[in-house]
C-alpha cells in the first residue's frame, strides 16, 4: 500500500512560505510523478519525490531519496535513452524520452520522462526536475497495432494447440513437484490440488477439490494471515513471494509455511485464478534456530577463555625485557594481534546472534555526524599505509542514533573498501544531506561486484566465489551493517560494476525521534 501521509512524501519547500507551501501541495496533488535532483552533489541524487512518483515506482520515499534516477532501470542498462539523459544532464539541457523502468516488485513499465534544468542567478544548473508518466498501456496498444492480424491469429492458434498438447505433460510436472500446490478460483474455491498437498496435510482429493479454501479439513485453513494474503495483499501486489504463515493444524501439528501466490491475468476460463504454492519450512527453521543457538553459546563460551589468554599474553609482554628477549617479544606481539582478530570475529558472531534473536540494543542519543565520521576515519587512515582516505562534503547537523553502531557500520565499509582494492591508492568518503536524510557513501576502486552478487551481498554468511578464494572472512559484516541501518529506519545499498570498484551508500533520517514513533 502507498502511504499518503505527509511524512512519507516530504517536501523541499519551506513550511513558513505560503506560496511555496501551495506549490508543494500542488506537486503532491499531481497525477504525474515528479522528482527533483541536486546537480551540485556527486551522482545527482534525488532530494524530492511526490506521492505520484512513489505510487508509480512502488518504492517508499526512504528507498528513493539519495539514489540516482538510474536505479529504476535496474540491470536494463543498454537502453539508448540512458545516453540521451546523461548527455542532457551533462549539458544542462532539457530532454524528453520514453524509457523502460522497473517497479520495486520487478514489474516493467514504460516511463515518459521529461527532464528540465533549474538555473541559479549566475546561470549554473543547480537542480533538475523530472516529470514521469506511466505510458505502459499506450505502448502496449502501439505494439499490438503494429502486429499484422494474420500473424496474431497464427500465434494464437499455435499457442492454443501447444497448450492442449502439453496439458497432460504439465499436469505430470505439477504432481512431481516436492511442494504443495493449489489452484483456486476467484472465490477461493479449490480447483485442483497436487499429490504433495494431499499427502502433507493428510486429505483426499474428493474432500479438497470444489471446497472453499477456508472450509478445508473442518476449517483448519481458516487462517487470518492467509486471508490477509489473498484478500488484501495479492490483488495489489501481484505476485506475492515468501509470505510466512505459522499455524497449528489439528492432525499434523504446528507448521511454518512460506506461501507464494500468483493471480492469473490471462483472459478466458483461467482468468483471475490463483496459483498458491505452499512450502513447509518447519524443519528448516528449526535447524536454523539450533544453528543460531550454537553460534550464541559457542561465542559466549569462547569469549571467557579468550579474555583470560589475552590477559596472560599481556602479562608476559610486560615481563619481557632486554635485547635477548626481542624474539620472544615479537612472538608475543603477533600472538596478541591474532587474539585481537579472533576477539573481533567472536564479537561479530555475537552481533549476529543478537540480531537473529531480536536482542540487538540501540542506545540512541544526539551526536555530531560529521565529527563522528572524521574521528572514525583517523585510526583507519593511520593503519592503512597504502591507501589515502579522502573525505568530501558535510551535513552540518546532529543525528539521533546509536553512535557506536553507526561507527561499526562505517568501520566495516572502510575496511572492506581497503581490503578489496589492494592495488588502488585511494578510497573516497562523501557526506551530504539529501532532503531530510543524511547520506554517506564509501567508494573504492577495486575488483567490483557482479550484478548477481550484489543481490545477495547483504545476506548472512554470503561471500562471492572469487572473494572466498582471495580474501579471508565469514561474510557477516555487511549483514550486520544492513541490520543496524534498518534499525535506524535507514537504507543501505551498493552500486558496482565488475572490475570498476564499488560504492556502498546508506541514508539515515534526520528526524529519527519522530520516525521511531510512527
TrEMBL record:
Occurrences of domain PAS (ranges): 19-92, 166-237
Main localization, broad class: membrane
Catalysed reactions listed for this entry: ATP + protein L-histidine = ADP + protein N-phospho-L-histidine
- Could you name the Gene Ontology cellular component terms for this entry? membrane
Q: Which InterPro entries match?
A: BphY/WalK/GraS-like, HATPase_C_sf, HATPase_dom, His_kinase_dom, HisK_dim/P_dom, HisK_dim/P_sf, PAC, PAS
**Domain Histidine kinase positions:** 297-512
A single GO BP term for this record reads: osmosensory signaling via phosphorelay pathway
Any one GO molecular-function label of the UniProt entry: ATP binding
Sorted alphabetically, which PROSITE patterns does this protein's record hold? HIS_KIN, PAC, PAS
Q: Which UniProt keywords apply?
A: ATP-binding, Kinase, Membrane, Nucleotide-binding, Phosphoprotein, Transferase, Transmembrane, Transmembrane helix, Two-component regulatory system
Entry-linked Gene3D superfamilies: 1.10.287.130, Histidine kinase-like ATPase, C-terminal domain, PAS domain
The annotated topology with respect to the bilayer is: Multi-pass membrane protein
Q: What's the superkingdom here? A: Bacteria
Q: What class of enzyme is it?
A: transferase
Q: Tell me where in or outside the cell this protein is found.
A: Membrane
Q: What is its EC number?
A: 2.7.13.3
Q: What is this protein called?
A: histidine kinase
Q: What is the scientific name of the source organism?
A: Pedobacter roseus
Amino acid at each position: 500500500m502507498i502511504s499518503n501521509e505527509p511524512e512519507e512524501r516530504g517536501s523541499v519547500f519551506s513550511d513558513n512560505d505560503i506560496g511555496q507551501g501551495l506549490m508543494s501541495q500542488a506537486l503532491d496533488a499531481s497525477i504525474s510523478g515528479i522528482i527533483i535532483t541536486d546537480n551540485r552533489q556527486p551522482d545527482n541524487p534525488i532530494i524530492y519525490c511526490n506521492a505520484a512518483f512513489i505510487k508509480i515506482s512502488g518504492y517508499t520515499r526512504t528507498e528513493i531519496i539519495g539514489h540516482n534516477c538510474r536505479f529504476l532501470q535496474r540491470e536494463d542498462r543498454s537502453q539508448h535513452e540512458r545516453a540521451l539523459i546523461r548527455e542532457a544532464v551533462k549539458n544542462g539541457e532539457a530532454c524528453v524520452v520514453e524509457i523502460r523502468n522497473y517497479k520495486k516488485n520487478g514489474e516493467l513499465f514504460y516511463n515518459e520522462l521529461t527532464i528540465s534544468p533549474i538555473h541559479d542567478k549566475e546561470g549554473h544548473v543547480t537542480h533538475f526536475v523530472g516529470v514521469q508518466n506511466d505510458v505502459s498501456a499506450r505502448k502496449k496498444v502501439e505494439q499490438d497495432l503494429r502486429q499484422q492480424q494474420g500473424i496474431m491469429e497464427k500465434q494464437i492458434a499455435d499457442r492454443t494447440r501447444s497448450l492442449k498438447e502439453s496439458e497432460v505433460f504439465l499436469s505430470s510436472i505439477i504432481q512431481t513437484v516436492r511442494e504443495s500446490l493449489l489452484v483456486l478460483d476467484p472465490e477461493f474455491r479449490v480447483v485442483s490440488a497436487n499429490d504433495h498437498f494431499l499427502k502433507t496435510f493428510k486429505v483426499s482429493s474428493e474432500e479438497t477439490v470444489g471446497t472453499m479454501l477456508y472450509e478445508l479439513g473442518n476449517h483448519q485453513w481458516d487462517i487470518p494471515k492467509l486471508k490477509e494474503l489473498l484478500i488484501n495483499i495479492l490483488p495489489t501486489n501481484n505476485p506475492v513471494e515468501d509470505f510466512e504463515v505459522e499455524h497449528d493444524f489439528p492432525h499434523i501439528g504446528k507448521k511454518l509455511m512460506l506461501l507464494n501466490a500468483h493471480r492469473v491475468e490471462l483472459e478466458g476460463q483461467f482468468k483471475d485464478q490463483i496459483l498458491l504454492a505452499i512450502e513447509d519450512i518447519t524443519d528448516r527453521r528449526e535447524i536454523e534456530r539450533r544453528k543460531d543457538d550454537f553460534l550464541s553459546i559457542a561465542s559466549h563460551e569462547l569469549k571467557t577463555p579468550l579474555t583470560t589468554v589475552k590477559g596472560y599474553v599481556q602479562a608476559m609482554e610486560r615481563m619481557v625485557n632486554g635485547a635477548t628477549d626481542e624474539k620472544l617479544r615479537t612472538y608475543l606481539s603477533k600472538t596478541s594481534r591474532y587474539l585481537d582478530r579472533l576477539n573481533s570475529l567472536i564479537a561479530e558472531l555475537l552481533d549476529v546472534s543478537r540480531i537473529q534473536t531480536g536482542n540487538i540494543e540501540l542506545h540512541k542519543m544526539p551526536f555530531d555526524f560529521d565529527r563522528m565520521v572524521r574521528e572514525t576515519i583517523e585510526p583507519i587512515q593511520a593503519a592503512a599505509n597504502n591507501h589515502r582516505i579522502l573525505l568530501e562534503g558535510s551535513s552540518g547537523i546532529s543525528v539521533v542514533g546509536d553512535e557506536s553502531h553507526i561507527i561499526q557500520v562505517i568501520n566495516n565499509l572502510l575496511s572492506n573498501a581497503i581490503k578489496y582494492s589492494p592495488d588502488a591508492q585511494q578510497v573516497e568518503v562523501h557526506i551530504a544531506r539529501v532532503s531530510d536524510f543524511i547520506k554517506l557513501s564509501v567508494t573504492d576502486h577495486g575488483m567490483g561486484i557482479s550484478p548477481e552478487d550484489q543481490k545477495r551481498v547483504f545476506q548472512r554468511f554470503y561471500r562471492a566465489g572469487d572473494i572466498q578464494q582471495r580474501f579471508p572472512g565469514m561474510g557477516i559484516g555487511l549483514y550486520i551493517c544492513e541490520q543496524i541501518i534498518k534499525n535506524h529506519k535507514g537504507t543501505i545499498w551498493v552500486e558496482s560494476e565488475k572490475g570498476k570498484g564499488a560504492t556502498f551508500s546508506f541514508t539515515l533520517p534526520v528526524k529519527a525521534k519522530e520516525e521511531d514513533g510512527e
